[in-house]
Amino acid sequence: MPTITMAQALNAALRDALREDERVLVFGEDVGALGGVFRVTDGLNQEFGDQRCFDTPLAESGIVGLAVGMALGGFRPVVEMQFDSFAYPAFEQITSHVAKLRNRTRGRVCLPLVIRVPYGGGIGGVEHHCDSSEAYYAHTPGLKVVTPATAEDAYWLLRDAVADPDPVVFLEPKRQYWSKEEAQVAVRAAPPFGRAAVRRRGRDATLVAYGPAVPVALQTARVAAEEGVDLEVVDLRTLVPFDDETLADSVRRTGRCVVVQEAQGFAGVGAEIAARVQERCFHSLAAPVLRVSGFDIPYPPPKLEHAYLPGVDRVLDAVDRLQYDDEPDVHHLVRGAA
Known about the structure:
Elements (H helix, E strand, L loop, with lengths): L2 E3 H15 L3 E5 L15 H5 L4 E3 L4 H13 L3 E5 L10 H8 L2 H4 L9 E6 L14 H5 L5 E3 L4 H13 L4 E6 L6 E3 L14 E4 L4 E5 L3 H14 L4 E5 L2 E3 L3 H11 L2 E8 L4 H13 L8 E5 L10 H4 L3 H10 L17
Parallel strand pairs: 2-3, 2-4, 4-5, 5-7, 6-7, 10-11, 10-13, 13-14
Antiparallel strand pairs: 1-8, 6-12, 9-11
């Protein structure tokens, strides 16, 4: 089975979408000749020409506004915001127009538009280059919000997003662009759009994560297993629509839940997840739902991001706090795993 990176999987998804549907367009800052800051659009301009993959001025509001007009004209634009915080100048377009057009027209007009946003930290980036902005979009009715954690999911979720009749904010975890995995994206094995995936089965507690937090949750589960703690890991894949069924089924079986997110904690997506678990699984819970997140501060300088980003130790601490009083042999987990 071939080895592929997430960036290569995203590139393949865009290339296949462009080949299969002449209405698909790719544009944004430096996505043409350069192939994007992270080379996700590498080679597309050369293969499909300036009419299908092209550069735009440094004006995010204009990029999204242009995409709205093109989508209304029958095209399926895929735009790139280059970095998470760079998307904020387009926020008015996204929340006031992109998200509301179907409702405003009573369902008569849909907007098949994908807004790609490289997001999150872990790359040594400076301020305005490492935000986790998912809560803004997930809180906006009318938007679908997607964040893959694997190369295979990156390919299929992007293909699904391009084919969707409604606007999709596609959040790409930057630190996973170069992660490698064995995957055959030509044959679909990924769950359908809108469904979560159980990445690891376990019996003692559920770790629920999305995007850049999924590898952290999986590493935590591996470390915990060495101490006899069996953790289940649920990867949400899409924040909107949200798969309550898969998550609730997991928590009802394990009886405990820790939500892991890279974004700051206050009013974040993790808070919504915790509330939904508590509402649906209250009588199955043996302990409160806990959250592990970034701190409630602006993203720190590169030399400090290791302290800001949730790591294995912090997630293990949360697992310890779940208080396995009926299993005293698992109170003390190994530390020093980062």
